[in-house]
Amino acid sequence: MKNKKYLILLICVVIILAIVFGAVMVFSNSGDDTTKDKIKEEIYYIETKLLGMLNSLNNIPFSNSVLLEQNTIKGQEKSNNGSSGSSSQGSEEKSQGGESSSSSGSSGGESSGSSESGGDTDYTKYNVQSKNILNIKENEIDWNYIKNTVELLHTSWTTIMIDLHSLNIKNDDILSFSNNLDALILNIEREDKRATLNSLASLYAIIPIYINQYSNDNYEENLEYTKAHIINSYVLLEDDKWEDMQKEVTKAQEYFNLVINSVNTKSSQIFINKTYILLNEMKNAINLKDKKLYYMKYKNLMENIMNV
Known about the structure:
Structural class: mainly alpha
Largest sheet: 3 strands, antiparallel
Number of strands: 3
Order of helices and strands: HEHEEHHHHHHHH
């Protein structure tokens, strides 16, 4: 009788332990998934900041229009310059970084913003001008934008680093990003374009290494390797290393073929097909050894691959 009671008690204990262990495992997996989702967002944040600085170093826009301040008009001239509704819209556009949502085919236009002082209202007139690759001036670098951007990235890195540690990313790989980020800051402080480009490429190359360690998603990993090699070719252009650029684009094609053949293709087939074509066009542009043509191909390719 006693043995029967002990047996029942033992079975109950085993059932309770199984339930508790199962609950712990579910909670643990849920926590891991939440952290991975957060890391994915943080990686995207890093990616956009690095790309923003890379493009800015050659004044390559991912938008074809830019809003430029033209002149300031005094309050008494208000009646000659549109309604207050359009004024507030222009002010808002400037506060968002001075980019216009005009279509790429637009060659010009006007908007206005307002600021009040001493009871009178001053209106600032803006001119929307087309900004394209053939008109860019590579040496007119907006270092203030780049310095602000790298400070934002540096501020966020501490939190991102903690999250990476929580997913058991190798300490050496985390330290590598930290060291390269410090080098990037020093190069930007010196306003050294060539060194800054190289530092940015080195930082971007670490992104697929992180994805490999915290995710089993080969699709995302191969896509990031594709982007990293495209960026390498872009950086090599600064020294006119056309043969090395060709090799980097070839590597990008190899990784992108793995993306195409992925069982878990997540993107629209249109973007995938277009990226494949644009990679081939970039190789042709490298053969012609024309910088502006290459930048046009790079811009189209990167705008498209960000949607893959």
